[in-house]
Design a protein that fits this description.
Blueprint (H helix, E strand, L loop, with lengths): L11 E3 L5 E4 L2 E2 L3 E4 L2 E4 L3 E5 L2 E4 L5 H4 L67 H4 L54 H20 L10 H16 L8 H10 L7 H24 L1
């Protein structure tokens, strides 16, 4: 988008979701400044009256803390989530031991003794009565003679006849806990700015080689495509892969209004140069 002569102080910047990021404090040919934040002119997608709208990738300039300090140094915090797994005691099940009461008829043989009474009348020779016998002579009555014997009675006693032993053993089981963690990946502006002139030269050569079908865009319009490919060149997911392997992923994530064929070479150039720069930095 060509914004030459259209930028001015106080012009409000909006995201694609109509979020107001604030007014422009100052600007130059390459950047617009909101407070301490610097936004490339190529990041803007359209202008509607007093509103300047960022493209789909433009809001990242407000989501990262890329503010300019007094010395011009940019400090970008890089964050990442890590999975911390802790162990805690808890009941994971139980063993049920059920006791039931059964009734059983028991017969126990026992021997009992008792007295048997036999009454016999016998004849004896006549004899005179003694003094002790005279007082009870000719008295009527009943003579009771106790008869003794053993009786059986049952008494129940509770005894322990056995035990149920429950053993608990600690088993160690290895489990793998899986979760999704996030981490922030930062493209260092210093590296991109070092290659920016090469991208501008590549764009000029492409436009000059189109002949009658000259590209009417400016480098500011094409720069987001170079930067997008450059960032993909730094992406660890694409390490060791060439552009032909990565292109389907980049194409699926393309949300701009331009056709993929129109901007493919710009993204490819950014990807190849970003990979080379990343490899040089790792070797250093």
């Amino acid at each position: 988008m060509d914004l030459k002569g259209k930028l001015r102080r106080g012009l409000h910047i909006f995201g694609s979701d109509n979020r107001d990021y604030g007014p422009i404090d100052r600007y130059d040919d390459q950047y617009a400044y909101v407070g301490e934040r610097r936004i490339p002119v190529g990041a803007f997608e359209r202008m509607d009256n007093d509103r300047l709208y960022l493209g789909a990738e433009g809001r990242r300039y407000f989501e990262t803390e890329n503010r300019l300090g007094d010395s011009g140094e940019i400090r970008v915090p890089v964050r990442e989530e890590r999975l911390d797994v802790e162990k805690r005691q808890g009941q994971i099940g139980e063993v049920g031991i059920r006791k039931t009461v059964e009734r059983e008829q028991v017969n126990v043989p026992v021997e009992l003794r008792h007295e048997e009474v036999t009454v016999n009348e016998i004849d004896v020779p006549d004899r005179p009565m003694t003094a002790g016998e005279t007082g009870k002579a000719f008295e009527e009555g009943t003579i009771r003679v106790p008869v003794r014997g053993e009786e059986a009675f049952a008494q129940k006693e509770t005894v322990v006849t056995g035990e149920v032993v429950v053993n608990r053993e600690v088993e160690t089981e290895r489990q793998t806990i899986s979760d999704t963690v996030r981490k922030e990946r930062v493209d260092v502006d210093e590296n991109y700015n070092r290659d920016r002139a090469a991208f501008e030269q590549h764009f000029g050569q492409r436009r000059a080689g189109m002949g009658t079908a000259a590209d009417t865009r400016s480098f500011a319009d094409a720069e987001p495509h170079y930067r997008r490919g450059y960032e993909a060149g730094y992406d660890p997911r694409y390490t060791g892969r060439d552009f032909a392997d990565v292109e389907p992923d980049l194409r699926r994530s393309h949300t701009g209004g331009e056709s993929w064929e129109h901007l493919r070479e710009e993204i490819r150039e950014g990807f190849d140069r970003g990979r080379r720069t990343s490899a040089e930095r790792q070797r250093a």
